[in-house]
UniProtKB/TrEMBL annotation:
This is Beta-galactosidase. Residues 717-818 form the Glycoside hydrolase family domain. Belongs to the glycosyl hydrolase 2 family. It comes from Marinoscillum furvescens DSM 4134. Residues 1-22 form the signal peptide.
Length: 822
């Protein structure tokens, strides 16, 4: 019998208002009770080392997020200590029953260059921090009840990335104890060559490992469970596998009237695979999959034979104040916020994401472009992955695909982003071809892609032609040229806009600047670096060229590091981005680092959603500017909008007809202004009071947004995303903090310091306010508000109970909120 049950997330338990997925587990969770030492230690792997003074940590763990921020570190990585040596050790005993079994240790990801020892024996090394790996450690273990110790050494380097990668064993670890006949790691490959509402063909290939000393006669059985857990099909085959070898079983099953995986109904099926030898079950393995079809033409992408345009975002993997450590709820919330913006697709820029992230995309109904690399052999930063590419590149890519290919959400493999080889006549296309071939050999059901930011070099040198679907970064004005020069290439915007802004910050009069002394960027959604342009420009070119399959904006969320337009350029600063210290995290997000929408969120929502919405900017606190014109923008998906100041109409505007002149300074783009049909605007002589906008569809009022001039800060207001969370030690509750006047209006410029006190069944795990240029620690019990808001993240303990958060701020009425853990 398999020693550990593998549980699957095919069912949801609804617990009064929140849902807990029983998640897929590859083995016994091995995340708890590790010891951590953040420095070189020549004896770190020695079993007898006295580690009693090492710090106790649970995984997933990111040491860099603990800070402190320092100008000694690189603002490109968030001004945080992402480099150095980190040792992790864990002591454990093995049951005597495990002797003779196959014991594997699986790491979902460790940042960076992991070396793993068991009882002093080096069992393996894996450089790439974004890929999962496992080692068979059976022969190094003691099964007599005495102490075993696993030691992991990580050596992330300075100048090794272009953003914050995190540092540590930042994804989960699993201990897997199996009989010698078992399903390999990531051992099933499920495809649905037919997937219609009437019928599905489910094809499954299973890699079965025989580590026993004998040849084995193995029966492989699959049972298919529909989303409700009902058995809907099965398949079976006998396989003979010689001793020490791996064999593959290939079977198909017809499922009648399947529930297709779709964006608005992401139905998931389960395959339960059982291996039997001589009537004894040797392994049970569960795989989740979806039944869906994808198809690309030169002009469009189809999901289940319906055309879908990519309303996509690029996302880095960090979760702001929590760093790179995986928290399921943090990713879930991130993706939910993205869906609310109208997003239907994610580009996992520029690396393999966590398993959890992909599971969530499956569950939430999001399309994914799974991206392998930001660099191949030619360097972007001196200590980057290019140092490992030659030796590990193909394996890392293959492993990403083998790990991920059952996820119905994934619709494309990307072999790279803005690879320097684009300009290399020899290596550009040959490496691209090799990587494309790896993808094809590992999963022929999805196209390959690459994100190209050069034009025309990679088209002229035969590199673009190596992939199935070509991603263009920041080249909307070239779409038509590529189409006419290379009519056979399907194209989409793999990275677009790169507009920057700071939530709630408006600089008047509107101007186009490169940087601002405040180290913030105005939220009129106009400013970006030289290659960037406002979202409107991409909308325009996508509309003009409907064969472009959509776009992935840079970025959905702000992320740690790369504080463009601040910080410096690699060429002039040797890769250190500290010129505009303390600017230390990105301004690119449509949503800030806290998960609070910026104005741009609504500009995309107006373009990507249909439920009537209207948004108004800026805030309405401009004391001292009475009578002066303030530019007021409305973002709406309605036909018309009417603005009122203190009850007086300032006129109706028609979307698409009444245009807004916006400034652009996008390289090689003339003229320097654009008449945007995507924004409605008014010049409003300032007068304190109430600014209201009303949206009309077919002449009927369907939406409205009101902004009032706020008085003095009077109180703290707290609200929480979920007031019941799981008592599992990893669940999170996100508490939004607002500084309000006595009437409940947000004070848009408030920066009051708020102090938190947390009692009961959980702890305060992080605080933030979305300010990209502050050095306040994420791990504190206080935070200043930024543009009137802050965030406190609560983390459940393992005992059910109540978490009580109290927030105080000098001179203001405090607030209290409670969260139940169950
Ligand atoms: C792109 C790059 C991204 C990010 C972005 C910022 O060129 O692919 O990783 O750096 O620029 O605008």
């Amino acid at each position: 019998m398999t020693a550990f049950k593998r549980v699957l997330f095919a069912f949801t338990i609804i617990l009064s208002g929140f849902s807990v997925w029983a998640q897929y587990e590859p083995g016994e969770n091995f995340d708890k009770d590790w010891l951590f030492y953040n420095d070189e230690n020549p004896n770190g792997q020695q079993p007898e080392l006295d580690d009693s003074k090492w710090r106790q940590v649970n995984l997933p763990h990111d040491w860099a997020i603990e800070g402190p921020f320092s100008s000694e570190y690189n603002a490109r990585y968030g001004g945080l200590p992402i480099h150095g040596t980190g040792w992790y050790r864990k002591h454990f005993t093995m049951p005597a029953t495990a002797k003779g079994k196959v014991v594997r240790l699986e790491f979902e990801g460790a940042m960076y260059n992991a070396h793993v020892w068991v009882n002093g024996n080096l069992v393996g090394n894996r450089p790439y921090g974004y890929i999962g790996f496992e080692f068979d450690i059976s022969e190094y273990l003691k099964y007599d009840g005495s102490d075993n110790v696993v030691a992991v050494r990580l050596t992330p380097q300075d100048l090794s990335s272009r953003w914050y990668p995190g540092a540590g064993i930042y994804r989960s670890v699993w201990l897997k104890i199996d009989n010698p006949v078992y399903v390999d790691q990531w051992g099933t490959y499920i495809t649905t060559p037919t997937a219609t509402p009437e019928k599905a063909t489910v094809q499954i290939e299973t890699n079965v490992v025989n580590k026993s000393a004998d040849n084995q006669q193995i029966t492989v059985t699959h049972e298919y469970l529909d989303p409700s857990g009902t058995k809907v099909g099965s398949a079976k085959e006998d396989l003979e596998i010689p001793a020490g070898q791996t064999g593959t079983s290939a079977l198909y099953t017809i499922i009648e009237s399947p529930k297709l995986w779709d964006l608005d109904a992401p139905h998931l099926y389960t395959a339960v695979t059982t291996l039997t030898v001589d009537g004894q079950v040797t392994d049970t393995y569960r795989s989740t999959f979806g039944i869906r079809s994808i198809r690309y033409t030169r002009d469009a992408f189809y999901l289940n034979e319906k055309q879908v345009r990519f309303n996509g975002v690029c996302l880095h993997h960090d979760n702001g104040a929590l760093g790179a450590a995986v928290y399921r709820r943090a990713d879930e919330r991130k993706l939910q916020i993205m869906k609310e913006m109208g997003v239907n697709a994610i580009r996992t820029s520029h690396n393999p994401p966590s398993r959890t992230f992909l599971e969530l995309c499956d569950e939430l109904g999001l399309l994914v472009q799974d991206e392998a690399f930001d660099v191949w052999k030619m360097e972007k930063v001196p200590n980057g992955y290019n140092l490992f590419f030659e030796e590990w590149g193909e394996l890392d890519l293959k492993d990403m695909i083998v790990r991920d290919r059952n996820h119905p959400s994934i619709v494309m493999w990307s072999i790279g982003n803005e690879i320097i080889e684009q300009r290399d006549k020899k290596n550009g296309w040959t490496v691209a071809k090799k990587l494309h071939d790896v993808c094809r050999a590992t999963d022929p059901t999805r196209p390959t892609s690459v994100g190209l930011n050069y034009y025309p070099a990679p088209y002229d040198n035969n590199m673009a032609q190596q992939v199935d679907v070509v991603g263009m970064n920041y080249k909307p004005s070239r779409y038509s040229e590529v189409r006419s020069n290379y009519p056979g290439l399907p194209i989409y915007g793999s990275e677009t806009s790169s507009c920057t802004s700071s939530r709630g910050v408006y600089h008047l009069p509107i101007e186009k600047y490169k940087t601002h002394p405040s180290l913030q960027v105005t939220s009129y959604d106009l400013i970006g670096p030289g290659w960037a342009y406002p979202p409107d420009i991409e909308f325009h070119f996508q509309e003009k060229n409907p064969y472009v399959m959509g776009e992935f904006i840079w970025t959905g969320f702000d992320y740690l590091g790369e504080p463009t337009p601040y910080g410096g350029r690699d060429n002039s600063t040797n890769g250190y981005w500290n010129d505009d210290w303390p600017a230390r995290s990105s301004y690119f997000g449509a949503v800030d680092l806290c998960g609070f929408p910026k104005d741009r969120f609504y500009l995309y929502q107006s373009q990507w959603t249909e439920k009537p919405m209207i948004h108004l900017l800026p805030h309405w606190n401009w004391a001292g500017m009475e009578g002066e014109n303030i530019p007021v923008y409305a973002y709406t998906n309605c036909d018309e909008a009417e603005l009122f100041l203190n009850g007086k109409s300032l006129g109706r505007k028609v979307k698409g007809v009444d245009k807004t002149t916006i400034l652009i300074d996008f390289f090689r783009y003339e003229p320097k202004t654009f008449e945007s049909p995507y924004r409605l605007s008014w010049e409003v002589p300032y007068e304190a009071g109430e600014l209201k906008v009303v949206g009309y569809k077919d002449g009927r009022q369907v939406s409205e947004k009101v902004i009032r001039t706020a008085g003095k800060p009077a109180k703290v207001r707290l609200s929480v995303d979920r007031n019941r969370i799981a008592a599992d030690g990893r669940d999170l509750a996100y508490v939004t903090v607002r500084i309000e006047d006595k009437d409940g209006n947000l004070c848009p410029n408030a920066d009051n310091l708020v102090t938190f006190d947390v009692r009961g069944a959980g702890k305060l795990i992080a605080v933030d306010n979305g300010n990209a240029a502050t050095l306040e620690s994420f791990q504190d019990t206080k935070r200043k508000a930024f543009s009137g808001m802050a965030l406190a993240i609560l983390n459940s303990g393992e005992k059910a109970g109540t978490i009580t958060l109290t927030a105080k701020s000098k001179g203001l009425k405090g607030a209290k909120i409670q969260v139940q853990t169950e």
